[in-house]
Amino acid sequence: MAKRTWLMALLAGASVLTGLGTASTPKAYAADDGGTMTISDAQFLWTCGFSPFNPSSNFLSVGLVYEPLMFVNTLQDAKVSPWLASAYQWSAGNTVLTFTLQKGVKWTDGQPFTAADVVFTFNMLKKFPALDLNTVWSALSTVTASGDDTVVFTFKSAAVPFFYYVADQVGIVAEHVWGKVKDPTTYLDGTPVGTGPYTISHCTPQDVSYARNPQYWQPGLPKIAKIEYPAFTSNPPANELLATGQAQWGGQFIPNLKAEYLSKSKDNHYWFPPVVNVAVFINQTVPLLQNVAVRQAMAFGIDRARVAMIGEYGYELPANQAGIVTPTFATWLDKAQLTKAGYAYDPKKAIAILEKAGFKRGDDGTFASPDGKPLAFTIINQSAYTDWVAALQVMAQQLKAVGIKLTIQNLAGSDYNARLFNGNFDLAYAYESGGPTPYYEFRQWLYSAGSAAIGQAASTNWERYSNKATDALIDSYAASTDPKAQYDIMSKLQNVMLQDVPLIPVTEQADWDEYSTAQFTGWPTPEDPYAQPLGGYTFPDWGVIMLHLHEK
Amino acid sequence: MRYILRRVGFFIVTLWAAMTVNFFLPRLMPGDPAIAMMARFHGRLSGQALQAMEAAFGVNTKASLLDQYVTYLGNSLTGNFGRSLTFFPEQVSTVVFGALPWTLCLVGVTTVIAFLLGTLIGMMGAWGRGGWFDSILPPVFIVLSAFPYFWIAMVAILVFSVTLGWLPLGFGYTNGSTAAFNWHFLGDVLKHAILPGITIVITSIGGWILTMRNNMIMTMAEDYVRMARAKGLSPARIMFDYAGRNAILPNLSGFGMSLGFVVSGAILVEYVFSYPGVGYMMLQAVLNEDYPLMQTLFLFITVAVLVAVLVVDGVTVLLDPRTRTGS
Fold first, then answer.
1. Which 3 state secondary structure label does DSSP give A151?
2. Which residues of chain B lie closer than 8 angstroms to A412, CB-CB?
3. Torsions phi, psi for A201 (to 5 deg)
4. DSSP code at position B281
5. Closest alpha carbon to B285 in B150, B107, B83
6. Fewer CB within 10 A of the terminal residue: chain B, N end or C end?
7. Taking a C-beta distance cutoff of 8 angstroms, is the pair A492, A501 a contact?
8. DSSP 3-state assignment of A278?
């Protein structure tokens, strides 16, 4: 008898508990004056650490809590605007970079921000290379202060491209806080003291809350009082939060965007400005692929527009063989040269190139080299990227039509990365990181010093392209701030892409960005691309956007 | 006493074996943490900085496997699990203990509910075999448990969160609220647990019903049940104290096992509902080659299952006099 009552009591208890939950509806949290922005993009659970030098969470703090010296806008031809520094100047043959700092900037604990903080930050990167995420000390020789508001960076040699890393990518921290930290590489920085427009008001693995910094040095900014950045573990709930208007800003892929997002409200918008290419990386050490005719034939045999349409739902634009992402970097594109090379989709030309190079078509339609080796290659791909899986299927059909057999290997992330970095592939579908001008992506693609032998992990240049003349071109870019000279170098690098075909850009990687104008306005648009959108991922850009946004 | 000692000895040997597997299994996976780290930087980091970072992260793949194994055993026994690579620079123990309460409450409570409800339904179904109760509930739940969890959860979200708007579509609590032990927050947590909780219960209840119903039918044919009827005992008492008590024994060991697995969380549940629990941590750990986190989680699961089995052994001894006299 006793046992039964125990069992029943438990059951009854359970139902009471569930009943309680429905009865007490939690009230919506009242938004302060200025409103609360909720960002919804797929992420993993948060580590409540905000160190600007921790690569897995620095996008949460750089731009909002910690500020860089200057802002370099990728979408406006690397246009530079002041931030913690009001001006900069190159001198001594582009080896000395001088910043003039803003006056009256204070840390959130009330202490003044000075040149000593900037010098301390950079010297800490030197002392702890694990913090130096962009390896600025490979080029720097000294960082010194002159007075309270001037900082002088001296480089080992001309280092123009490093401006972006030094000025835009490093969040400046306070000497009086970080000076006391024994090991900054393992420092969590849970309650950051910054100069930025926001402070961390609350953080759990599920959600980061930001609150406006009331003493922010730019008067009247920021206009939005709070930011909620919940952590999603999968896309569907993140998409739902956006579609139902509970979140106003998203940065994730939404299948069938029109029906699932745009149609839900007239205030819902999207903008996917591309900044890098998704490309077929061609392993330069595979004998058959060392034949430039094969590489060129593949470039002619891929219908990029169709791949973009079917694989990427038309949200990604087709790329061009010159490797310049348009329209973002259209001013850098050497159109005459691209037109002359004529890499439009042309299967007949692809076949002609192969035949001219002595390849013969076998019974199954696949070309084979004169010594009988068939043009059959495997391409490695990220199985998690379903759009890429679809894109490659389209590509395989197209290449089959020109007598090249493509076997797709969709691999899990870790396996894919290991094979990509170690050069253990024929072809690889991948993308490199970019920068504020196309130069950065080209350097990642083609600079031989970034590569490694097959079997050793290469941080860049996975296709193992090596050409002394190209390396010299890439080095020479560092010496000049003259736009004309830079354009000429980039034009020659485009020529390398067109003649040598070390890789085949196929589509332009879209940065998913969805936003609602129901509550907030001032978003970046194609007409006013003042910063790169993409939810919260692009730092410090999303800090710039938060400074532009305001309630209706 | 000898029985207990034997069980404890078995516990220790199994634990060692499991820890060893824990250590070697992740290392057999393709890729390594250094590569995973490189992937995260997407080519921005050059060799020297990467090496410095590897040292900071403790990703030293140069040390011999044996050295790593000995260090790992020592660290595990002293509770020093190191730093997580995914949630760097957080300590693994902080990460795990932050997620564990959520999982224990949600999955633990629902496992108990599913077990109790399933056992009760199975018992009553068998009691009134062929009746309306028996022909509706058990088949419905057994069919439901055959559905993929993912699908049921998605449909539940679509209906109750998106269309009707009754319940939140994910998370452990409302974003922006401060965790505190007050009614408001607890109510909030409960509200967020309803949908994941109910979906777990309805998909896992079928198994309990099935085994309980079958066991019950067997015991109902036993002589002692006939005897109890002949004595004129109330049907409820026969059902619970005679047939039920005997029929529940096999289910109990299964229940012990599943209690052990509560610690591993419900990966799918936590994934679909963005629930901040251990299951999702495990997924992240595997995806990021986060050896310290992975090893710690697997260790927790192993220990929990072994302890649960040990406890169930003890409980069976108490419930079933035959195990006592048998040895």
1. strand
2. 30
3. -95, -20
4. H
5. B83
6. N
7. no
8. strand
Structure tokens at A119: 């010098």
Q: Given a cut of 60, is residue B269 above it in pLDDT?
A: yes
In this structure, are residues A324 and A438 in contact, taking their beta carbons and an 8 Å threshold?
yes
Exposed (0-12), middle (13-18) or buried (19+): which is A503, by Cβ within 10 Å?
buried
| Helix, strand and coil percent figures for chain B, each rounded to 5 | 80, 0, 20
Give the residue-averaged pLDDT of A266-271: 91
Nearest to A219 by CA among A193, A197, A200, A201: A197
- pTM recorded for the entire structure: 0.82
Instruction: Report how far apart, in Å, the C-alpha atoms of B120 and of each of A139, A196, A393, B243 are.
Output: 72, 59, 52, 12
* Residues of A whose CB is below 8 A from B190: 17-18, 20-21
Helix A292-301 vs helix A386-401: angle between axes, to the nearest 10 degrees?
110
Residue that wins the pLDDT comparison between B3 and A550? A550
**A336: helix, coil or strand?**
helix
B contact test, residue of A204, A242, A410, A431 with most B CBs within 10 A: A204
Residue with tokens 């290449």: A399
pLDDT tens for residues B133-154? 888 888 888 888 888 888 888 8
Cβ–Cβ of A414/B98 closer than 8 Å?
A: no
- Nearest residue of B to residue A414, measured between CA atoms: B31
Q: Residue A26: which of B166, B187, B274 has the nearest Cβ?
A: B187
**Record: contact B56-A241, CB cut-off 8 A:** no
B166-205 residue pLDDT tens: 888 777 777 766 666 777 777 888 888 888 888 888 888 8
Burial B102-119 (b: 16+ CB within 10 A, else e): bbbbbbebbbbbbbbbbb
Q: What does the DSSP 8-state code read for residue A239? A: H
A183 CB contacts (<8 Å, ≥6 apart)?
A: A128
Minimum distance, in Å, between the CA of residue B41 and any CA atom of chain A: 7
